[in-house]
Design a protein that fits this description.
7 strands; 9 helices; single chain; 7-stranded parallel sheet; Rossmann fold; alpha/beta; about 260 residues
Length: about 260
């Protein structure tokens, strides 16, 4: 990608905000997930990432985490498979003893002109990756979490505005919002907060993989800020929701979208 997505904001100083905390991040090999992994490690966390098959990307994330002194674990597999999710969380708990923060970030999208072009296998695949996985990982992780734990789910601006060319993707992201609000109501009784972020146009590897050159050239220019966001700008919001600074926030969606106003 040119330019490369920004995963680590130099102006954000190192701290001990997450000292001793264990993060699990799905889709942690690149994009927003990588930025969260680096940001968490920069603030004292140990990090486990789940990813599908981009081993070199996962290694790059791991190198950055280790550079900041965090322990790192990477687990390859399909988060749309509940058996994998359960075994991955068990592996993390076996290595670190518990889970403190779960970031449900893995996602996929497929641009189609209309509903008639969306085949059943694509529909199921998108739902499995984008929302089934969040169910599976939360279900597996909560028994390993203690009071003060946090879950942060990645939704999307398309959950609120829709997208005619990302019909199945937008539908999954609407489900993520409902899942976040619903899970919050039950998990809060265990002292676990559940929130979400709804990114607008963010410059991640998903974008050049999804769009043609013209769409890429114009990507993000229709926001009030006139540009796409960077992965580390979303990571900052996720890390806030994961931290004790957000101790009185649960069931909410934080919009990171370049200034577009959402009233829902």
């Amino acid at each position: 990608m040119s330019p490369q997505p920004r995963s680590d904001r130099a102006e954000h100083p190192r701290s001990d905000r997450f000292e001793g905390r264990i993060f699990v991040i799905s889709g942690g090999d690149s994009g927003i997930g990588r930025a969260v992994a680096i940001g968490a490690a920069k603030e004292g966390a140990d990090v486990a990432i789940l990813y599908l098959n981009e081993h070199d990307d996962a290694q790059t994330t791991g190198d950055a985490v280790k550079e900041y002194g965090g322990e790192f674990l990477s687990i390859a597999g399909d988060v749309g498979d509940e058996t994998f999710c359960r075994s991955a969380i068990d592996e993390v708990a076996g290595r670190f003893g518990r889970v403190d923060v779960l970031v449900n970030n893995a996602g996929e999208q497929h641009v189609k002109e209309g509903i008639e072009q969306i085949e059943e296998d694509q529909l199921e695949r998108t739902f499995r990756t984008n929302i089934f996985a969040q169910f599976f990982l939360a279900k597996a992780a909560i028994p390993h979490m203690r009071e003060g734990g946090a879950i942060v789910n990645t939704a999307s601006a398309t959950a609120f505005a829709g997208s005619p060319h990302l019909l199945d993707y937008s539908s999954t992201k609407g489900a993520v919002v409902a899942f976040t609000r619903s899970l919050s109501g039950s998990a809060v009784k265990q002292g676990i907060r559940v929130n979400a972020v709804a990114p607008g146009p963010i410059w991640t590897p998903l974008i050049p993989a999804s769009y043609d050159d013209k769409a890429i050239a114009d990507f993000g220019k229709d926001t009030p800020m006139g540009r796409p966001g960077q992965p580390d700008e979303v990571a900052s919001a996720i890390l806030f929701l994961a931290s004790s600074e957000a101790s009185y926030i649960s069931g909410e969606v934080l919009h990171v979208n370049g200034g577009d106003v959402s009233n829902t």
